[in-house]
Protein 1
Amino acid sequence: MIKVTLANLKTIDLSPQSSDFATDVLAGLEREQKSISPKYFYDRRGSEIFDQICQLDEYYVTRTEMSIIRSLSSRIDANQSPLLVVELGGASSYKFRNLLQVLPEISAYMPIDISRDALFEDAFALARDFPNIDVTAVCADYLQIESLSAFYPDHNYTPMVFFPGSTIGNLSEAEALQVINFCQKILGGRGYLLLGCDLVKPESILIPAYADKNGVTANFNKNLLHRINNELGGDFDLNKFRHVVRYNQMHSRIEMHLVSTTRQTVTVKDRMFTLAAGESIHTENSRKFTKDALQRYADACGFSIDQWWLDERKYYALALLRTGDPHWRFQMNP
């Protein structure tokens, strides 16, 4: 087979350390409040189920964010300064492709993700479809990146970090601050952060988004146990767990749990764990934001909120954070 190369594509593998699924699962099941990180949802089957979730009527997040991005085409005016977009978790360029329709000033794209094969395959397709875009795909834990100059030593781009999907809501407050500070560092004190934020709203809207009537999200949650069974020799009986969603008003977050319906003992990697009836495994948080809450993060990390775009229902925000003087301006059209 002939390997096709593209002049506008560069792939870089920084060999990120793969987190130890077994170690993390065993440690999580030892805790008083049993928990497993949501990053383990996304094996191939989990990713396929999540794609189904994004099509659900109840799950507004993805389509609302895309509607905001698409609407910006008639509301943003900018000069012709070249723009470099750095996407955190960029194994799929679906959202970037929409952004590209809005901002033709984009000249370079640097997706960063730990999923090497998916990242490089998608980057190849993007570079093929957009030969005028300089694509540099970096397989890494994005916190590994020290600066952009190592990848673009001679550029005169204005950099913009793109962190969509309200992924920041899946992080703890400390983790969110770490990521925003990381963005400040790689921007070198001059550039933008385009950030998707799901907003605080009534529980009657939030709960169905994570507990749909067709049980797709329940399958997504239980697939975590299916993965443990397949990869770690677990013996979870999925029928003995139910998907439970709670809204924690004090912390403005949705919590997903897998609740044991009976007292049971499960085995993972030859270690036994007992769950009481009603005991849960906490699998995800999804924090919701207000503008004031995001402003506190911005202030703590040296950013200002330059723009704050909402959908018509005010369910979701796309926030443009600015640091320094990027010499590049988004302006609202009249």
Protein 2
Amino acid sequence: MLRDRPSFIGMESAGIHETTYNSIMKCDIDIRKDLYANNVLSGGSTIDIALKMMFQKEITALAPSTMKIKIIAPPERKYSVWIGGSILASLSTFQQMWISKQEYDESGPSIVHRKCF
């Protein structure tokens, strides 16, 4: 079921379970166990009641059988992305990366690369 979702919007790409699995497999073998045990669903698109259950089933099928898979779906996940962004923006170390509307209007999207990378 998860592998069919991108086609809903006319895109051909891996489902979130495959993307998660591929990302974990690119990480150092010593941290994979922790990554499998700490998958957090966030954002409004994760509110689908069946998503957590489907993601658990699909990622479990891909992962080594010895891995404990844990999917965390906090009740406030609809706002988790915004909350995380607001916390990040409030950090003093992040202020140098702030982009004003005037800066964006003058430079366009390239200002993001100049200030943030």
Protein 3
Amino acid sequence: EPMTALNPVKTIGEQVAEGIRWHTGANRTDAEARARAILDRVGLPEKQFPLTRFPHELSGGQRQRVVIAIACALKPKLLIADEPTTALDVVLQAQILELLRDLVQEDRMGLLLISHDLAVVTDMADRVTIMRHGEVMETGETARTLSEQKHPYTRQLAEASVHVPERRAQPTESEPLLEVRDVVKDYPVR
């Protein structure tokens, strides 16, 4: 959850610049310039999202972009994304996944995506490892592993991810479900 990952009393600029200063020894001005550049890159342009904004002033998707900016500011070789789309609506999920895909491709970094959402995994991952209670159940190329489902737990996950709750059939009778007669709503005078 990006709201808990960010410090509520520090601006987004301070939080992105902090890692840059700490790990590179850059001065404040240079670190802020680099912070501004990465925030622009993740879709938070200066005009609408100045460095002086606080996390509570941003939406969930915007906070997630700040967290991604912090993670990518130093151009790591491997980006670990643990449930990056949790608590985001479907549109924001798609935007965040596309952003991650672009950053990984542009910076030529690896992505370790941790997710319970098999649709996200299928869309994003070349290879998948199915784990249960910290133990590897199955691993391999994503499309093959998820289509063959050799391990029973992989089958359970696949079934659960496409499960649609049963709905009761709509009544076919033309009779009303409820009839009300002689109803009066009274407002007593005080």
